[in-house]
Write a structure and sequence with these properties.
cysteine-type endopeptidase activity, Cathepsin B, Chain A, about 375 residues, 9-stranded mixed beta sheet, Papain-like_cys_pep_sf, Cathepsin L, alpha+beta
Length: about 375
């Protein structure tokens, strides 16, 4: 396994915020009848009912923490992300010149989506891993990041990966079972990679019998913000990121109505909350519905199928609802078809946060 590189930029702030979030969210979700009565005051396009997570403490279902210095982090990350992507592009083009047969295997040469399409769903391409279940812990941050990595491995390498969220929870330093931050989680994936779920099964605690020295074959090349300058990227920016990178991680505000969602377009108007608390994966969009298609981490006893297959665990959520898309991020798997030469990276003035990326690429 690569030498562990802890991302320290968020450290104390993240842990302190995690404790505050956990303390503030000890309430249970209102019962279904109360939720239905409240919804009578609004004109809605979705249904609520009994779900596998209704009645749980919200702290066991959420846990996405966005630190106060997130803009500084985004500003530092933006030029680094662009440079690594440029190096990846150059190496990809070089590899294809040497071996033209690679062109048919590399996703970037055959992108099937464009942001002007009325509907796009990565599930139809077989590039979304199965829905998982974080319950009962505030580990959505790990499931969102790992879901993005799994999709990127499918897209870039056509390799199915069932990656271990537990390994990240136990060893990344990016968060706890009471909440975490996706930025250092993504940086840790670039620095260390992760192991398989079968090697380190999820147990919803901070401990695991799997040693930290376990091999971590599932690497990320780079990560970044969908729009470093915006707290919530525009619909167009998110669509562009979905086409370029695959499913993207994002934050949303999950309340009782969200937890009781059973179908339709989630368009609940929330005027009392100006924050987010839950990380999900945006896997597509439908302009006819004016909605994102999101993958959740609450198992298949929640949500609906969103017009693809019969598996639940997904949601249509109206653009802009509940601050969906806040601090959206992408992650890109390392290609198995070519690699970036270490010497290409030596002139890049990476800051402390991103030195982990260099070590991963030079491994």
């Amino acid at each position: 396994m690569k030498k562990s590189v802890l991302v320290r930029l968020l450290g104390a702030t993240t842990l302190a915020t995690a404790a505050a979030v956990a303390s503030a969210q000890l309430q249970k979700i209102p019962d279904l009848n109360t939720l239905k009565l409240d919804l009578q005051k609004q004109k809605i396009s979705f249904t609520i009912g009994q779900t596998s997570v209704l009645g749980k403490d919200i702290k066991q279902l959420t846990g996405d923490i966005i630190p106060p210095n997130i803009q500084q982090i985004a500003d530092q990350q933006e030029p680094i992300s662009k440079r690594v992507l440029e190096l990846d592009r150059l190496e990809r083009e070089s590899a294809v010149k040497i071996n033209p047969a690679l062109r048919g295997k590399i996703y970037e040469f055959q992108i099937p989506a464009n942001p002007n399409m009325k509907r796009w769903d990565w599930r139809t391409q077989g590039k979304v891993s199965p829905v998982k279940d974080q319950n009962p812990a505030g580990t959505c941050w790990a499931f969102s990041a790992m879901g993005a990595l799994e999709s990127s491995w499918l897209i870039r390498n056509n390799v199915t990966v069932d990656a271990s969220e537990q390994f990240m929870v136990s060893y990344s330093g990016a968060g706890t079972t009471s909440g975490g931050d996706r930025a250092p989680a993504n940086a840790w994936l670039v620095a260390n990679g992760t192991t398989a779920e079968a090697t380190c099964p999820y147990n919803a605690t901070m401990t695991t019998s799997t040693p930290a020295s376990t091999a971590t074959p599932y690497d990320a090349l780079a990560w970044g913000f969908v729009d470093a300058a915006a707290d919530i990227p525009s619909v167009q920016k998110i669509k562009e990121a979905l086409c370029e990178h695959g499913p993207v991680e994002a934050s949303v505000y999950a309340d009782g109505n969200f937890i009781a969602y059973t179908g339709g377009i989630f368009d609940h108007v929330d005027t009392a909350n100006n924050n987010t608390n839950h990380a999900i994966l945006i896997v597509g969009w439908d302009d006819n519905k004016g909605a994102w298609i999101i993958k959740n981490s609450w198992g298949t006893g929640w949500g609906e199928s969103c017009d693809y297959g019969s598996g639940r665990g997904f949601m249509y959520i109206k653009y802009g609802t509940h601050k969906i898309g806040r601090r959206a991020m992408w992650i890109k798997a390392k290609s198995v078809h070519y690699f970036i030469k270490p010497e290409l990276l030596k002139s890049i003035p990476f800051n402390t946060l991103i030195k982990a990326n260099i070590r991963a690429i030079q491994r």
